[in-house]
Amino acid sequence: MPSDPVLPPEPASPTNPDIVAELLAILDLERLETDLFRGVSPQNGWKRVFGGQVVGQALVAATRTVPSARAPHSLHAYFLLGGDPSVPIVYEVERIRDGQSFTTRRVKAIQHGRAIFAMTASYQVTESGHAHQAAMPEAPPPESLPDTKSLLAKGVPGIPAAVAGYFGRPRPIELKPVDLRRYLEGGPQAPLCNVWLRAASTLPDDPAIHQAVLAYASDMTLLDATLIAHGRSVFDADIQSASLDHALWFHRPFRADDWLLYAQDSPNAAGARGFARGQIFSRDGTLVASVAQEGLIRPRSA
User: Fold this and answer.
1) Is 219 a catalytic residue?
2) Are 242 and 4 within 8 A, CB to CB?
3) Is 258 considered catalytic here?
4) Which residue would you say has higher pLDDT here, 291 or 68?
5) Residue 68 bears catalytic tag
6) Of the residues 92, 121, 231, 301, which has the fewest C-beta atoms closer than 10 A?
């Protein structure tokens, strides 16, 4: 969402016994009318709503108006205004099309009488056909990587405090960066970044829940990839960063509570905007989803 760093919300307390249950509650929207829903935000002190939360909630709203035999295969969204976490978000679903194979929905998120977010999502019945996929990049298995929370709690020399705090806090999505050297070494590097992620505890078996959780997680870390080539990060105080738009394609079934490799790269940055792409693989190498995002990476004035 505009005007704030692209960082996900944190639980109100590090002793929260089940932060995944809190995430599921946030994604479980209240139905106000046939195509009208209301969602809330965690009350954790953040000044803006995390963009991934709005993507996930909007997907839930759209999905609840679609027959269960049809699953989402893509969504395209724009962040219009920063969300206010102190008040509910109303999601208005428009039924654009119900075809024989595809269903299309448009969702508008509203706060204070204004649209803060807009999304179009497409759904399809299950079909068979030609299939191929990109290969998963080489990456060590998540079990071989240090537990980031424990590692950063002890302190890692050279890692900025904001980075340590981000990766060290409890959150509903576990993150294990494959390589932290960009934060240690500094300086421009190839704009590539791999992160293992998964829900922090077991999710219900409903595929719609796993899709919503992955939509939530897909906004984490992606914009930061646009700054690697410049030796910077969204954690730098003199960088104003925000998601501007977001696209997500679901390719194959997956579980969001199993480890997924989020392979990210950034082919372009210009005009104070950075463009990043992500491929999400299950640990057996299956490409389950793809992501694209453009975001603001504006240097702040002194």
Assistant:
1) yes
2) yes
3) no
4) 291
5) no
6) 301
